[in-house]
Amino acid sequence: MPQKNLIIPTLFSLLILSLLLVSIHFYTEKRTEEVTREKYENKALEVQNLVDTLIQGQKDKMTFIALSLAQDSQLKDALLNQNTQLSYQDYLKTLSQHSDLKNLWLHIVDNTGHSFYRSWTDKRGDNILEKRRDLQKMLQEPTVIETISTGIFDMTFKSSVPIYDNDRFIGVFEVIGKFNSIVEKLKSRHIESVLLADKHYRDQIKFPFSKRFLNDYYLVNGQAQTAHLQEILDHNLLTYSQSHHYYIDTADQQLISFFKLPNIDGEPMGHFFFFYPLDLIDVSSQQLKPFNLYIYTILVYLFLLGGYFYWANKNRTREIFEFNRHLSKTVDQKTQQLSTQKYFLQNVIDGVSDAVTVYDRTLSTSLMNHAARALPELKLSQHLLNNRDTVTIQDNEPPALKLAAQSFESGRSQKTVLHYLDPQLKKHYVELTTTPIKNSRHEVTSVIQLGHEITNYLDIQEQLQQQKNDLDFIAYHDPLTDLPNRILFLDRLNQAINQAQRNNEKIALLFIDLDRFKEINDSFGHNSGDEVLIVCAERLQSCIRKIDTVARLGGDEFTILLDALKSNNVIINIVEKIINHLSAPIYLGDDVFHVTASIGISLFPNDGQNAEQLLKNADAAMYKAKDDGKNTYHFYTKEMTEQAFERIFMENNLREALNRNEFEMYYQPQYDSNTNEIVGFEALVRWNHPERGLIPPQQFIPVAEETGLIVPLGRQIIDMATTAIAEWQRSGLTKARMAINVSAKQLRDASFTQTLSAILDKNQCLPEWLELEITESSVMKNTEHTIKLLHQIRRRGITISIDDFGTGYSSLAYLKKLPINKVKIDRSFICNLPEDKDDAEITKAIISMSQSLNLDIIAEGIETDEQRAFVNSEGCYMIQGYLYSKPVTYDDMTAKLKGEA
């Protein structure tokens, strides 16, 4: 076999070998990592199981001691006779010397919940029932209880057993032990420990033996290494342990496993971290050895390559033999085929579905297949040729003969199309192509004529044209309503503008948006929404003239082009007709839908010179119609454009203002009108723009709400306000709370509570120094979620108040569910007091309702003595308003608190 024929297979096999070796390398590395990770996970589980076993063993030992000592007759006699001559010090000393039970305490409680005996103090007789939920449970249903708690003795085991005297429950015997014994046992197994009590126990631990804390988590084992504490902080393991079983510290070569301990109510109590050296975990036996795999792979490769060379050489020899034998056979066959060439060609063309006819110079048919004989036109030509004496072609000759004659004369291909009816009267079309066949001297010796039926082709061409028409319709029409889409509408609008310019006419553009259509999709589904859109499209078409155009731009937005207007009355008539038709009920099955629309109108040439301006201005007018209460229409005005530019300016500058910290806080004090003392503050934000100066919140807060910038702005406000109140409180200038307004979007932000907690921790601001003001409308949006969130905030100790009360639509039922502390009467009810009777009655009702619900109440916007006197007479004494103080800066408020202003 030639050497060059082996080069490509050899190179290809080397490529395969290289890929295989690389795959083995990656596989062994990946498998080694998987085995190592599995070892680490097993070791972490082993440590966790060991801790669980040690805890349960400690509980069992202490329970056994408690059960044994509870049977002592001397103890029962002391309980029954209130004799305190009990001492277990020798017993505890013996346990400490001859067992691993060290640091144990004994506690006896009588059946009334009073402490009868404590091994660590002489104190007795105090009622501990109110502080001990496990003791309450024991007194209700005496039984053995094993608990773990955190308190004066750090984190302890506690085994409590009932004491009976002749089936009469007379008290409880408790054995208390520290966790330190478990720490020592783990250390003997090379396991270092950090035991933390959950952060909600911080206030409970008033006099711990060790005052070491990790953030808000109390350190149970005070002898824990400082390095381990720092590792927990550096790697954020308190958060990491919530979703993982262990952590590999590659820097210090340690396996850190986690163990969580719940309290008697199943709530978080203990967060344990165990440190185990990685070099003590044996992973070497599981390591794969890739070298052997490489050797075996190369040996197999060499064996297969040698086998391939042997097979290729043998196969090549066989191919040469077969080629020679086949060549001899082919020569014999060709000799035989030459003698039967015409017969062979006839068989070939008979197998062709197209008609094939070969004419000689006399126009006689030298070859003709079955398909040609079946065609009526060619059958007639064959009959004429067989019954004629001349080759002259007349004008009335069949087209097939005339086409063949033309090819002989011109020496070029000729084409024509024949048509005929079959017996079923179906029309057929056949394309005839006649091609001359020339000899070496370029003389035409014969022509071959092919007849190909093109009936199906023409049918397909017709279908394609129909599909093109359909695609054109789809490209320029809305698929749901069949109305013109944006592309077609803009084309017609541009044409109408050009024609109006030539004819000095007016056109009108109506921008229509369905009011609250999203509620239909959200409540009934998108299928119902689509059906409503179809009905609305039909109603819009019924309202316009034949020369006008209705289009759907997308969603629930429609546009109408009113062409060749003579007067504005035409516009008004059509618009009012649209509003009336759309507001009629829509019945779909058992459901009834009520749809209204807001319509904006722009005119050419008054409101724009091109399609883009007209659309933009009609859209602006539509939003004005929505602001006017919806279900109405509004013509575009220049003032609306200026408002739009002002909004764009506000939005763009707001983003930059957040980055440049241009917002400042002002503080308005809240007073007790009986004592004239400051009882609170409200934080009010101002925008100090570098060019416009101080911008009041009513100009930029609505824009921040609509754009979502209220969330980052709210974070800055909370940060600045909590910094101020924390400094005033720590300086002893005030004991009042800081009220901060929170919007609905802030409450819906998933990270709101985390952000609030982080800011309080950063500024060292206690929750009880803070009050969050929410509006009625923010509560009523996603009510259940808001109530749940407010309960979480209230449990932290933060006060919650309802701002602008009386202006929303909350029901008394929802108000009772809210965890609120205070109600603020809106200034809109205060400003006309006491002259306006309606405002006076509303104010009285709010005060009365708040008092019945035991809520604090404050009146804002008090500017006159008459207003203050009125609310005081109804029982509201907390006041906020210009009568006492305007909002002032931090420095001015600090001076006021110091008595310097």
TrEMBL record:
This is cyclic-guanylate-specific phosphodiesterase. GO terms for biological process: cellular response to nitric oxide. Its cofactor is Mg(2+). GO terms for molecular function: cyclic-guanylate-specific phosphodiesterase activity. Residues 505-638 form the GGDEF domain. Keywords: c-di-GMP, Membrane, Transmembrane, Transmembrane helix. InterPro entries: Biofilm_reg_signaling (IPR052155), dCache_3 (IPR029150), EAL_dom (IPR001633), EAL_sf (IPR035919), GGDEF_dom (IPR000160), Nucleotide_cyclase (IPR029787), Rev_trsase/Diguanyl_cyclase (IPR043128), Sensor-like_sf (IPR029151). CDD domains: EAL (cd01948), GGDEF (cd01949). Residues 647-901 form the EAL domain. PANTHER family: BIOFILM ARCHITECTURE MAINTENANCE PROTEIN MBAA (PTHR44757:SF2), DIGUANYLATE CYCLASE DGCP (PTHR44757). It comes from Hydrogenovibrio thermophilus. The keyword Transmembrane helix applies. It comes from the Bacteria. Its EC number is 3.1.4.52. Gene3D superfamilies: 3.30.70.270, EAL domain, PAS domain. The lineage of its organism: Bacteria, Pseudomonadati, Pseudomonadota, Gammaproteobacteria, Thiotrichales. It catalyses: 3',3'-c-di-GMP + H2O = 5'-phosphoguanylyl(3'->5')guanosine + H(+). The chain crosses the membrane at residues 6-27, 293-311.
